Amino acid sequence: MSNDLDSLLRSPKAYEWSRKAIEAMEANRVWPTALNFELWMHYVAAKDGDVASEINTVLSSGQHFTEQVAATIAEKHLPSAKLSGEILDAGKSLTEELESVSRALESARESSEAYGQQLASASKSLEHDENAEAVRAMVETLSVATAKVRDENKTLETQLAETNDELGRLKEHLEQVRREAMTDALTSLANRKAFDEALAATCAEAQATGEPLALAIVDIDHFKKFNDTWGHQTGDQVIRFVASVIGRAAHTSRFAARYGGEEFAVIFPGESSESALAVLEAAREEVSSRILKRRSTNEDLGAITISTGIADLQKDEPPVGLIERADGALYASKHGGRNRTSIAGPEAEVRAA
Ligand code: C2E
Fold it and tell me: Which of 187, 227, 229, 237 to mutate to test the pocket of ligand 1 (most atoms within 8 A of CB)?
């Protein structure tokens, strides 16, 4: 499909299809970002395609077509996004492979050195034993041979050391690429992909050990109105501000991520909703007490508030169930008047802080 899209974009009908894609985005209140445009070109150009069917599912469910939704569809169906995930996975296994090769080389070098040392000390211990003349002569011959091999190995060792350094640099580079792919560019918090992986891993660990785990979902109140009033750039600064408060609250083993546009998630492994509540109430107060200024004009931006939902992981509950209950609690915070934190019960009930 990507090749088809490429040729479509260079065909006489390109502008017509582009207009259709933009109209469809506008009709569905979807931002015309580069990624959305690519997806919606697939949508208008291949009505029966996988991308179109995913988009239709989102639209018919009444869900907003957020950045996150777009990223998920792209990851599944757009070759470029799929490829970057595959490159990362390949990078990860290459790193593991290289690590095992360099461990094997290091251990071979160590045993060759130990062997040489053993021969040298055997030769030394025979120095004063006259009956062992023949054995000593043999060990000496072996020592000379070993020394020769060792000399020859020296060059190889130098080369190996250089290769090892190069592997180290390559590994660091791969780690950096992986880190960047897991980080949200605007806030420097973990992104949704990293969050999904962390939640799956920490929930599995909590289920296995019986340790508690709480999940919080935080949303900036009235963000859309705020964005419409002050513009996207200021909206982005507000997201960065809330992210910085949440990031500071999520130190140690806690894990904070940008979950969607103006939504954040914090995983509290080993903690209950009560301790998560204390942390998020402090964050809520910090956010609402700060007077932010619009940098271009120095105008006060008015109070920024956040609403939060928290849920405790239940026995045998899958991560998706935990997210749903935390979302339910967030919904309760919004409907209870915003600027508040609510905790979900084990079922659907919610209580406000
Ligand atoms: P940033 O602009 O990159 O600022 C990073 C950090 O540098 C801030 O973290 C703060 O510790 C410090 N900083 C930057 N500018 C000032 C300043 O004029 N006075 C003081 N005292 N410190 C400053 P912080 O506060 O956690 O904010 C994180 C991000 O939130 C900022 O990133 C910015 O994107 C946004 N933000 C925070 N306050 C405001 C504000 O009043 N207006 C706007 N437009 N954005 C803000």
Answer: 237
